[in-house]
Amino acid sequence: MLTATVRSFRLKFLWLAVLAALVASVAHGATANVSITSNRFTDSVSGNSTTTINVGDSVLWTFNGGTHSATSGSCAAGCTPNGNWDSGIHSSGTFTHTFAAAGTVSYYCVVHGAMMQGTIVVQQGQALPTANFTFQPAAPTIGTNVNFTDTSGGSPTSWAWNFGDPASGTSNTSSAQNPTHAFLSAGTFNVSLTATNAGGSNTATKAITASNGGSVPCVVSDTQLCLNGGRFAVTASWEKPDGSSGNGTGVGLTGDSGYFWFFDSANIEAVVKVLNGCGINNAYWVFGAGLTNVAVHVVVTDTLTGAVYTRDNAQGSAFEPVQDTKAFQTSCP
What confidence tens digit (pLDDT) does each residue in 14-32 have? Predict the structure, then answer.
């Protein structure tokens, strides 16, 4: 009779373990740990048989020898299960249950009865915030302040902004509730807000496109730099002696300069800088240098006027420095 009972409990345990795994796969709360050792339930935080959690949290019981169960029910007038959850009798392994409603829940071991009891205190807790924000203007131009307004629900108490603009340095992040940020180059930036309250954190991300105000805005990409306030688009293509070719990968350095690598991200091949010399000789200047002898075709485009400046490096020749202070003589101001 005892063997049949044990088998029944083991079968029930297997089914409950499967259900617990399914619940755990969709649960979003925290997990409290309870050790079952020496005929005692011991919570890892309280150090005793009482576990305090929030609604949506789970409790993980770990069986460490002996023969025990974690069965919901009361021993106030003889230990009686209430059918809410039951680990089944086990001597090793784990059992998890997620608590969806607030209240105080009693449980016990069916083998040891009233001498081995535990309590789960389930608090209502605070719901996670729902991060959200708006921004104005909706279509900003480079150099103008964009005003961000937090519209998150759930009463957040702290805010963490990332403007997706690492070139702006320390200005790329903010902890203000309603910050401002100016994008200094044209492109599409993924701006994220992480709102936090006592219940946890939630993040919202929106794409913002900043243009240079010209008719064909420069957009930063893997193969294109946008220099001097995002006005000048710069690309560099290459060709090897065997005829293979491709586009260089651009990496911004400052608002006016950047470099390209061709074959290895750790190997810089060409550096380009565009400066505003309008106050000196009424022109925009282009400077460049290369650390390669493959054929290179550099193109600098004034996206405001459409003017194009090119410089080529011949195959097998050392890259000659570029110091052209008359590159764009019709682009000022």
Answer: 444 444 443 333 335 789 9
